[in-house]
Write a structure and sequence with these properties.
With 244 residues, the chain is an alpha+beta fold. The chain is built from 6 helices and 16 strands.
């Protein structure tokens, strides 16, 4: 089947949160994707926007084995690929660093395809999500993601009421308006930022625009998942009863 006027099946699958585009292509090649009940094996096949798309049992089983990991990233590690001699955060994922209490124990297979879903700067600490699951990655960093990220930010400098209002809405970076944020004082030394986007070094640059200097930044929540009391440098699996 192929609808030349339709949309690529891999794109439809990603938009519906079934999997990532890369995973969709792999499933299609293996004959594990069905459109309106018909098996699809040809990459690039198109279908109507309202087509019924289902995954075969083997693909569903593969997804069920994919893990998502919550890491309390320390300062000094980069989120993604190694750069400038600094190690990537995925190097911290080991049996020794797994927090006690997880039902699932670490296996080397959990590292295969494990990638950060979002970034956390080298000089920042807190909650970093790493996942094998394209659905989770898309939810957190997809173009249309609206998942909140909450940070505690230690700052130096004076912040007027007008500047605080600007932090909430009114600033732009790289010539592009920022989405509205929720910024308030958590205590006399720390601001609480709640964002729905993640531009590079966004919070530090926002603070610079209103005359503040960031001296510490910690991410404490992504969506409904909190860092909690997870120690620095340790990690745990996202539980079945948790979701962003």
């Amino acid at each position: 089947m192929n609808d030349p006027q339709g949309i690529r099946i891999s794109k439809l699958m990603a938009e519906r949160g079934l999997c990532s585009r890369r995973e969709a292509d792999a499933y299609i090649e293996r004959g594990l994707v069905f459109v309106n009940g018909e098996r699809v094996t040809q990459l690039g096949t198109r279908a109507a926007p309202d087509a019924v798309i289902t995954l075969g049992a083997a693909a569903q089983a593969s997804q069920a084995r994919q893990v998502t990991i919550l890491l309390h990233k320390p300062v000094g590690y980069v989120s993604g690929q190694a750069e400038d001699g600094h190690q990537p955060a995925v190097m911290l994922i080991s049996a020794q660093a797994q927090a006690p209490g997880d039902k699932l124990r670490f296996q080397m297979s959990h590292l295969k395809g494990l990638a950060p879903a979002g970034r956390l700067d080298i000089d920042s600490t807190g909650l970093l999500v790493l996942t094998q699951d394209g659905r989770v990655a898309r939810q957190l960093v997809g173009e249309n993601s609206t998942v909140e990220k909450e940070y505690l930010v230690r700052v130096e400098g004076n912040l007027s009421r007008e500047s605080l209002a600007l932090l909430n809405h009114g600033l732009e970076l790289d010539g592009k308006q920022l989405r509205p944020a929720k910024v308030s004082w958590a205590n006399p030394e720390q601001l609480r930022f709640v964002l729905r986007e993640g531009r590079k070094r966004q919070i530090r640059r926002m603070c610079e625009l209103v005359g503040l200097r960031v001296t510490g930044l910690k991410r404490v929540r992504i969506g409904r998942v909190r860092l909690g009391d997870l120690p620095v440098g340790q990690w745990r699996f996202l539980r079945e009863d948790e979701g962003f």
